Structures are given as C-alpha cells and as structure tokens.
Amino acid sequence: MKKVYLFIVALMVAATGFSQNVIFSSNFESWTNGLPDGWMGSKSSIEADSVVQITTGTIYGSSAVQLINTESSHKRFTTQAVTVTGGQDYEVKFWVKGKGDIRTALFDTTWGAYNSYINVDATDWTEYSQIVTALGNSDSAQFIISVRNTDAASGHLQIDSVAISEATVSIDTVSVHDIQFTTDASGDSPYKDQIVYTGGIVTAKGNGSYFIQAGSGPWNGVYVYDNLNNPAVGDSVIIKCTVSEFYNFTELKNVTSFVVVSSGNNLPAPVELATGDVADEQYEGVLVKVMNAECTTDTNNYGEWIVNDGSGDLLVKNLYSNFAPTVGEHYNITAPVYYSYNNFKLVPNTVNDIEIVSNVDADKLDNNSVKLYPVPASTFVNVEADSYINDIEIYSLDGQLIAKYNVNANNGALYGLTTGNYVFRINTVKGTVEKKVTVK
To answer: Considering only CA atoms, which of 319, 401, 323 is closest in space to residue 355?
Structure first.
C-alpha cells in the first residue's frame, strides 16, 4: 500500500510533531437516513444521492463514503459546524481512492481560498494532507471537501478516515519579487498554494482588494484579494497569506495576519512603458505609466476602454475608479497592471491617476481663453477657461513651484493666497497658458 503526503504549505514539513489537538474525525461508521453522521453541513452543494455508503474494500472499519460528481464544476461535501480560531492553520488528512479531482477548503466567517486539486487515479488507498487557515473566530465553521470529474468505471472517489487537527506550520517570509518571479511558461508563481509572509506599500485599493509593491521595477508588485482589511494607499503592510493563481493571475488570498507598519509612504516609481509593452508577465501587479496614449474606444459593459500610443492596444479597466474617457483624447495613465480574461489591463486607483494630454499645438492657444479675476487678487482668485482645466501650478518669479491645484473642470477658485507676485500656469486640454498674478 502506497502512502503519500502532500502538504500545501510554505515549505515541506516532517510529519512528526506537525499536528496537534484533533478537532474533527470521521471513519464514516455511523449513518443516519442514508447520510454519514457529522457531514452534509449547510454549505454542502453535492446532492444527497451522490453521497453513497461503501461497505466493501474499506481501509478503516466497515464503512467509507463514495462521492459522485462527474461534472467539471465542483461540488462541496462539508462537515457539520465546528469551532475554529482565526489565524490558526488546520491540517486536513484523508484517505482516498478511485478517479477524480479532490481538494479542501474552509468556510468560517467567509469563504477561504481552496487548495489546488489533487488528481486521483488509484485502485489503492492513498493518504493525503492539505493545510487550510481560519480567517476568523467561528463556532459554526465547516470544513470542505470539493470534488469534480469523478469516473464511474473507477468507482468515482471513495474517502475514508478524515482527521482535522490544529497544525503548527513553519511559514517562510518571501519577498513580492520572489513570489512573482518565474521562468515557467504558465506564469504561475513558484510559491503557488503556499502560505507565506510578505509585504509592501499599497499602490491602489478598492472594495475587497488592493495592490502592494516592494521597490520599483519588474516582478515587484502583486494583487491582494482581501475582504477583511482596508488599507490606505501609501500604507506599508506585512501580511500572512496564501499565494494563488486565479486563471493565471497571481494573487494573494486568505489574509490571516495584517499589520500596518507605517502610513503616508511615497509610492514606488512607476515603470514607464509603451502601451504595447505592458502585456508582459514581469509587469503583473507592478505600477507602470504610459504616456500620450490615445483613447480609441468607448467604455464597454465591463468598464474597460482601450488606449494606444502607436505601439499597440492596451485595456484600461475601471476596477477602482469610474473614469469616463473621450474617444480621440490622449492620456498619461499611472496604474498597477491587472490580468483577467487573457488580457493585461491598467487599473487606475482614482481619476487623478489619469492625466489628459494636450493634442493641440500651444501656438494655437489664445491667451484670452483663460481669465483670472479679481486682478490684482486678494486671498483668492477665480479662474475660468473655454476648455477643460486639468490643474493650475503656481510659481514664484524665480521659477520655484509653490503649489499645485487639481481642477478637473472649466473653472475654479483658489483660496489661501499670500501677498506677492506669481506666475500661474494653467494646464488645459488644449495646452498651457501662463499669466502673471499679483496678490495684495
């Protein structure tokens, strides 16, 4: 009889001393109304008639369970409610034979990440082990066995002797670069399905997710799927998480420890790229900047639009912001790189990460197209233009930048001005107008 251990953890750990404190066990000896006692919790999705008692060829006792799901989409077979502790790792051990795919997960305060499927094709019983982590304290948690692609000719999947224990696991601290860097043609992380500690500065965020980056350049950014924590852009964070591949998009999930080290940090310098060069695995999750890229499409039903600087199309996705682009307008865009549906995409954090670029020659501007009043100014000045104003920069007469105001409208008012002589640089979609202003 062959005995195999598959530990989905940050590193391989010897079985001796690995687990302690069994919180659930089942040899499928007791059945009530055709179902095994302790199973078929409320999160089960497998049909009752697909859970069958097996009384021959078992490995322990007189009974085992056969799970039937010939479909390619999975079905859940869950325990009844058990108590778990947030942040605790649990080892799920089970014996299995037959043919099909099987994996484990945990539902506590929310859905945790699933482990990778184990592809079973064996006539002998084989023992496997996977690690799951509780996201929060719960007295109504359910451990999940997920199955798919079972084969009738091989007896589907038969399971016996399930034991779930608290686990003591040694967790590696891994840089974002090492999580992302790969030479594998699939682009999958070398730490796929492993639990790690990592950290970086938050470069963009929205409901339930954010990007972190540790240093500038390729391989240094990653997407984090996290419904429990709400960092701010500029926070430096350290997290304990599971590295996952979601349709070839590397992401961090199951965040069970979250620490803000500091706030208000400068973001890593973006990598300046041509639009046609962004679609590269090394820039996945990384903060990049494209320049003078023309919008070529309206926003589609998925909140996506296309820009092109002449080197190739690039999708921009309104994942966090809600920007309405204008076809034919040119933009500078600073954003991390996202991946979904086989396409790399920029996801700006706010509309302020999208800068409108003039595509009109400066010498065509009429200086009278921008008006400032009252003149001379007092503690405030009104600004009006016949075109969209991106921002206004205020300089001293010796060329030192004193302040910058985002306007994003055709008019605005600047307050809090101090006495002196200044040059106002008004940057509009048609170009830049400079006006000398005296404040008394």
So the answer is: 323
Global pTM? Answer: 0.61
CA-based radius of gyration for the chain: 29
Contact 10, 194 (CB under 8 A): yes
DSSP E strand boundaries for 44-88? 51-54, 64-67, 75-78, 82-84
- Whether residue 95 contacts residue 127, with contact meaning beta carbons closer than 8 Å, is answered with yes
Residues of the chain with pLDDT under 50: 1-19, 359-364
Number of H helices, E strands in the chain: 1, 29
List of domains in the chain: 19-167 (2.60.120.260), 172-262 (2.40.50.140), 271-357 (2.40.50.140), 362-439 (2.60.40.3080)
Two tokens at 174? 């891994």
pLDDT at position 368: 67
Cis bond upstream, residue 376 (ω within 30) = yes
Cβ neighbour number for residue 84 with a 10 Å cutoff: 28
